[in-house]
Amino acid sequence: MRLPRRIEIEISDFDFKGYGMATWKGTLIYVINGIPGEKVRCHLVNWRKRIYVAEEILEQSKYRIKPPCPFAQKCGCDWQHISYDAQLLFKEKFVEKAFFGIEEATYNKIIPAVKQWNYRGKTELAFSRLDGKELKLGFRERGKFWKVIDLEECLIQEEGMNKLMREVKEFVREKDYSAWNPWRHKGFLRYLVLRHSTIGEHMMNIITSSEGQFPLKELHDSFSTKPESSFWSVSDSVADVAFGEIKNKIGKDYIVEKTLGYEFVILPYSFYQTNPYQAPKLYELVRKYAEEGGKLAIDYYAGSAVISIVCSDLFEKIVAIEAEEYSVNAAKINLEKNQVKNVEIMHAEVEDTKGKFSNVDVAFVDPPRAGLSKHAMKALISAEPKRIVYVSCNVVSMARDIRILRMHGYKLIEITPIDMLPQTHHLELVGLLEKK
Ligand SMILES: C[S@@+](CC[C@H](N)C(=O)[O-])C[C@H]1O[C@@H](n2cnc3c(N)ncnc32)[C@H](O)[C@@H]1O
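Above: query sequence and S-adenosylmethionine SMILES. Below: predicted holo structure tokens.
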């Protein structure tokens, strides 16, 4: 189908990736910057994926606002042009759509974010310096892996992280370093990973290639407010992942976060919720669904064992399963710090635990975006948990997995959506299932 370069069209709905959807001569197209109910003039930006961008709004939605960030929709914030109340409304519609036909459950209203701006506790920023031009530091432009948006400020990143980002950029510009070229796989600076905890601690981790030595102490000493932890890591991998081998460290091994009265450590590569301000609300919800307690719980995809620890008083024993070494290490420190004795850490892939557990009262399941793989699902079903508390950051994979679990004798009792990522289409959900 040959699509026109420019069209005027009416947006009918949102798709699960946050794009406006419209139909042109029977073909579904996706429109960035379009809100359902609007008539827009848009131009084609990706023929293969049928993606357009609305350049002029001909009939405007009552939910449209002027995005405060000039780069909105170019990096991560794809919904800044929608008022916050309407963002919540559209997220609730995602739940309705994804769980259509599952009528036995109670669907609760979405829990709004306690902070709509400056909430991110982790960002992975990329360096770029193509054609010998000025060094850039910021997020990759959506759909353009080679292009970095040079940022002075990110409105959803915590303020202290913004300051660190600006000061790192000034330092490396003065040094006149090269940056990683994504085609040639050469160049020095690769990523800057910033982390922050709600008690006010900061971590910065600069990732370079092995082309040179990074003067970490000089950078750390140059900061106007020094982060609690500074790291230098090295990676020559062609994969575009902000991960490297740690070469040097100044300050503490980890920063500390507090949630529901417990303390958690954040190591350079360990998992912690991206929105630490909203995390207590998420864990309160998980606890509420597990309240009945029991003898044995399994915490699948445990990260640094936060769920296990905040629910440790509800069970005689919890086994926390996690595949990544950094998170396993963080989990072990967390158990010690909080004097929790009834949680056992299992360094394993969920997929390899089939047949290992029985008489499970509650299974906590909090997988990455893709949801449960076929073998992970088999492992979960083999444990025959009486109840499952499913935490998800992807309504589509969660709905798919819940439909499979329903075929294996589970009933969906309740779902509560929670907004962990305001200004974006992303949605977190917690669901409770029970064996019939
Ligand atoms: C969404 S995080 C969940 C973290 C944790 N429940 C929390 O609340 O902090 C998913 C975790 O699953 C881990 N993971 C991913 N694939 C895995 C697998 N196949 N087996 C075990 N853990 C896995 C990741 O390393 C990550 O820590």
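The pocket of S-adenosylmethionine is lined by residues 271, 273, 301-303, 306-307, 321-324, 327, 349-351, 366, 368 (CB under 6 Å).
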